[in-house]
């Protein structure tokens, strides 16, 4: 495919320069650092980054997706490459998720220059106790480093699916902050945005066995209520997590785009949320008739 051809055309000198940049930004695991036995794996991920960015620039594309079916002859699933491109403002969605990719690009543009960060995200698992219930968010590889202020670690680990070589990725924890997760759903005749106010917190313990970047958060008003409301809204599997996005700005965008926005916040009750869904359904149905 086109990307494979672009990867083959990347100059070694360009890869050398990017590796030097990585060394300034990340703590690189010894096995993939210069002189390490698996340094070629890091160089290959750098090659993907260069080739993919050239492809996006040539096509004037602001967002992209990946999936295993379209990797072709690529040796690795893009991991570090995707994380780097998200940090430059590109939208991304895993498994061909174009809606979340577009939404991420939109929110990146809305929050450019503001404190905080914005990333592709997915609920990985739920902690119901002991202690306060929380959500662990992550993805296979692709979490944007803008949501963290710590120096990321650049590591290589096996990936048990896809049939490709072990991919290189950045590993870090998200910086504690107020934020929100946002999903975009296709309802058939219109779109719906659902957001949940959250507080990103530090993990209760060191997540030594998790070989990917992650975020841990407390959803408003509670995990049980937010999860129930998200299900009633038909909330998406993938989301955008942002600690830079103001909730009023998201509401303004939804109004400009004429898209429904359901917000799950500290004041949310299931009874009220279900009524809002029904009221909005009637409003958008009537609006489509005018």
Walkthrough of the structure:
With 290 residues, the chain is α+β, with helices and mostly antiparallel strands. It has a single domain (2-97, 106-287), classed as Alpha-Beta Barrel (L-fucose Isomerase, Chain A, domain 3), CATH 3.20.14. 36% of the residues lie in helices and 24% in strands. The protein has helices at 2-9, 12-25, 39-59, 80-87, 98-110, 223-232, 247-257, 270-287, and strands spanning 27-28, 63-66, 91-94, 118-127, 134-138, 153-156, 168-171, 177-186, 191-201, 214-219, 238-242, 260-264. It has a 6-stranded antiparallel barrel with strand order 4-5-10-9-8-11. Strands 1-6-7 form a 3-stranded mixed sheet. Strand 8 (177-186) and strand 9 form a beta hairpin. It starts with a helix and ends with a helix. The relative contact order is 0.13.
């Amino acid at each position: 495919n086109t990307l494979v051809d672009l990867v083959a055309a990347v100059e070694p000198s360009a890869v050398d320069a990017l590796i030097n940049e990585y060394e300034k930004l990340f703590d690189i695991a010894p096995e993939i650092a210069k002189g390490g036995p698996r340094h070629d794996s890091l160089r290959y991920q750098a090659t993907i980054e260069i080739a993919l960015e050239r492809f996006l620039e040539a096509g004037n594309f602001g967002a992209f997706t990946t999936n295993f079916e379209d990797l072709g002859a690529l040796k690795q699933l893009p991991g570090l490459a995707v994380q780097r491109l998200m940090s430059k403002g590109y939208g991304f969605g895993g498994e061909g998720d174009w809606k979340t990719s577009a939404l991420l690009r939109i929110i990146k543009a809305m929050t450019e220059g503001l404190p905080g960060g914005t990333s592709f995200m997915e609920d990985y698992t739920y902690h119901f106790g002991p202690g306060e219930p929380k959500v662990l968010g992550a993805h296979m590889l692709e979490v944007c480093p803008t949501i963290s202020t710590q120096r990321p670690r650049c590591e290589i680990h096996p990936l048990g699916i896809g049939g490709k070589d072990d991919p290189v990725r950045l590993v870090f924890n998200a910086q504690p902050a107020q934020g929100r997760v946002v999903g975009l759903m296709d309802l058939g005749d219109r779109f719906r945005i659902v957001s949940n106010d959250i507080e990103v917190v530090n993990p209760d313990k060191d997540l030594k066995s998790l070989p990917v970047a992650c975020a841990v958060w407390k959803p408003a008003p509670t995990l049980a209520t937010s999860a129930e409301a998200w299900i009633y809204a038909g909330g998406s599997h993938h989301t955008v997590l942002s600690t830079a996005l103001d909730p009023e700005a998201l509401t303004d965008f939804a109004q400009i785009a004429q898209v429904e926005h359901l917000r799950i916040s500290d004041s949310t009750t299931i009874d009220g949320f279900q009524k809002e869904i029904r009221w909005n359904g009637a409003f958008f149905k009537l609006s489509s008739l005018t």
